[in-house]
Task: inverse folding
């Protein structure tokens, strides 16, 4: 096999792994959209906020220390202890659940029955709010996430695959972190599916997704389910935030991955969990391959910024409901 | 008792159809215009022009553009920043290619070019609706910014990748370049805004505007009663992009003078303009002004309060700004989904009946 072909395969594998991360963010969107019809733009900022909180708790930072210092003229910044990773993760999950409750209680409960586009805009407001709160709480400098996840390329894979090609081929370069992210994502999706299929709350969640009023009439509390769904989305956001944060540091650009998840959703359809995963993989592979074959050699590179959107745009013109979305039927 | 239709007799169709049917409103309008044109240019200084008035006027034009598309025609667009960039780069290319032609013509032409680009990106709106369209317009945003970054023809192969506005004159007064007087900046923006607002107001009351609103309220029903969705949607995209392009051209040439595309016309700009029309009020020209004024003034006011009065660090105030803008947007959507314009409308209703509301 020629080296070019093998490098092409390497690009595809790396694309698949990037796609898994996109799918992880997209999954959070789908969960909320299915259960409440809210298109949650704040998902990316939730990932950022969760990762910031995790780092802050682990390092023992004082929340809102900047604000407190500015108001009272004090000089506090750290409690002086360090929290072990597992405890910090548990605390962060608690905070995300509290956040889910607050969002439901103070914002979306008042917006029930509004047009979808109003709800969407409310989540944009929420995204700004949460971004500001995250910065106020933990400061806006770039943080590193020290969870002890392995970094760098995997030598084992490289040596193992080097034999496939000729002398000019050195084996596949695959990031260890990406491999872990893939495994975590698969576990997360599997547990979500099991939760949705086999537990009481999961069934209730699917019932709400099918039909709000019917679910209400058999005694399912909509409020509880919505808090549950936002909490689940918060946990998914935490996982996504940890994976992306470990990769590129916890910083503002983390929230922009939410934008990358949008074309994934469009491809897969807003209402389909398998769609989010398949869409993520297609986008991940597509943009890497396009960059490798056409973008970098002919267009000057950095086509990854827009390729996903263009692909989704062109795709949607032919299939407006996405790959797995429910068929859109319009009546007067 | 001032604010009444009573006693204000209309004797012609023309008078009956005017924009401000109440005399008090008309007087208020002309007083505002007089202050804007005859008083402010003489008292304006550099700080007020650069921090408040010029950005307000330019964002108001952009907000009018987006409001036509989103508020009147119901097509949510997140590509405003990209279209502003088209206006800015079109203006730059025209300014450098034809230095002898007046900049006013360049700005209008830049609007025209943006209208063509906008209509092209509006084509998918015939198949894609709602959220899907909102995301599809992101394609325009990212693609256009990338294009202006990568293709060096657009910035005349300058090493920095920036575009710089050369000095240009209107009636012998410099309006672009480093030596521009604050009042000249203010005046050119004000003239463009006035003309744009008049055009927009009259378009939205006419046949075109009614067909946009029919599409917004329910596109299938509109199609059945004989509104051509292709025509309505594409004209909305084109007219909207025309205004957005003009605002982009002014933003680059008059306000900033030098522009790096990712920084000046990134996705944040799209959201900023979208927030303006949400807070101001969807489907209202007055709302565009109110929203633009609000979101231009809020950071300035917070900065004055936080940094100058309380002595807090700048980044802290910037974060607080985000929190407040976000909270306000949610608050408005919950309490008054129709924005400041609706509050204004309610106030006027109350005024008409005052002091005997029954």
Result:
């Amino acid at each position: 096999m020629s080296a070019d072909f093998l490098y092409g395969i390497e690009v595809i594998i790396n694309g698949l792994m990037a796609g898994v991360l996109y799918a992880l963010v997209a999954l959070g969107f789908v969960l909320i959209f299915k259960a409440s019809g809210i298109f949650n733009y704040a998902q990316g900022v939730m990932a950022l906020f969760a990762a910031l909180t995790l780092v802050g708790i682990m390092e023992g930072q004082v929340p809102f220390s900047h604000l407190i210092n500015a108001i009272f003229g004090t000089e506090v910044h750290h409690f002086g202890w360090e929290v072990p990773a597992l405890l910090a993760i548990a605390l962060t999950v608690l905070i995300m659940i509290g956040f889910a409750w607050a969002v439901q209680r103070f914002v979306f409960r008042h917006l029930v029955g509004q047009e979808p586009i109003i709800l969407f805009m409310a989540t944009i407001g929420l995204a700004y709010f949460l971004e500001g709160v995250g910065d106020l709480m933990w400061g806006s400098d770039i943080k590193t996430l020290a969870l002890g996840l392995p970094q760098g390329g995997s030598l084992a894979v490289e040596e193992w695959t080097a034999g496939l090609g000729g002398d000019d081929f050195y084996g596949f370069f695959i990031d260890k972190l990406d491999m872990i992210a893939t495994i975590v994502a698969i576990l997360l999706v599997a547990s979500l599916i099991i939760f949705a299929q086999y537990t009481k709350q999961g069934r209730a969640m699917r019932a709400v997704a099918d039909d709000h009023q019917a679910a209400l009439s058999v005694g399912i509390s909509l409020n509880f389910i919505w808090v549950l769904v936002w909490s689940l989305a918060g946990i998914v956001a935490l996982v996504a935030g940890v994976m992306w944060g470990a990769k590129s540091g916890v910083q503002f650009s983390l929230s922009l991955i939410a934008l990358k998840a949008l074309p994934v959703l469009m491809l897969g359809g807003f209402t389909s969990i398998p769609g989010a995963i398949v869409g993520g993989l297609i986008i991940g592979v597509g943009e890497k391959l396009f960059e490798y074959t056409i973008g970098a050699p002919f267009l000057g590179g950095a086509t990854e910024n827009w390729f996903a959107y263009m692909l989704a745009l062109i795709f949607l013109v032919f299939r407006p409901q996405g790959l797995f979305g429910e068929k859109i039927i319009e009546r007067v | 008792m001032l604010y009444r239709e009573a006693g204000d007799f209309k004797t012609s169709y023309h008078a009956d159809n005017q924009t401000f049917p109440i005399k008090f409103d008309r007087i208020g309008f002309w007083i505002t215009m007089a202050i804007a044109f005859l008083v402010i240019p003489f008292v304006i200084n550099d700080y007020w022009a650069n921090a408040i008035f010029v950005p307000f006027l330019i964002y108001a034009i952009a907000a009018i553009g987006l409001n036509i598309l989103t508020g009147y025609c119901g097509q949510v667009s997140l590509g405003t920043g990209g279209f502003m960039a088209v206006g800015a780069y079109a203006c730059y290319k025209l300014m450098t290619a034809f230095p002898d032609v007046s900049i006013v013509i360049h700005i209008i032409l830049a609007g025209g070019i943006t209208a063509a680009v906008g209509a092209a990106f509006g084509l998918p709106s015939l198949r894609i609706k709602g959220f899907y369209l909102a995301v599809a317009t992101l394609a325009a945003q990212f693609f256009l910014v990338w294009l202006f970054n990568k293709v060096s023809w657009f910035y005349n192969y300058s090493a920095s990748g920036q575009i710089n506005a050369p000095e240009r004159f209107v009636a012998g007064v410099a309006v672009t370049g480093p030596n521009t007087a604050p009042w000249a900046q203010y005046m050119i923006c004000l003239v463009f805004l006035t003309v744009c607002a008049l055009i927009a107001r009259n378009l939205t009351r006419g046949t075109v505007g009614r067909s946009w609103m029919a599409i917004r309220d329910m596109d299938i029903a509109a199609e059945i009663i004989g509104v051509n969705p292709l025509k309505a949607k594409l004209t909305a995209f084109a007219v909207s992009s025309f205004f957005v392009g003009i605002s982009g051209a002014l933003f680059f040439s008059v306000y900033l003078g030098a522009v790096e595309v990712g920084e000046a016309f990134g996705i944040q700009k799209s959201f900023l303009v979208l927030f303006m029309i949400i807070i101001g009020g969807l489907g209202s020209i007055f709302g565009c002004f109110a929203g633009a004024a609000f979101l231009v003034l809020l950071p300035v006011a917070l900065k004055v309060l936080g940094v100058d009065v309380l002595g807090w660090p700048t980044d802290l105030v910037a974060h607080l700004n985000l929190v407040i803008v976000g909270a306000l947007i949610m608050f408005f959507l919950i309490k008054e989904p129709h924005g400041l314009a609706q509050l204004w409308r309610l106030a006027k209703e109350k005024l008409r009946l005052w002091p005997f509301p029954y």
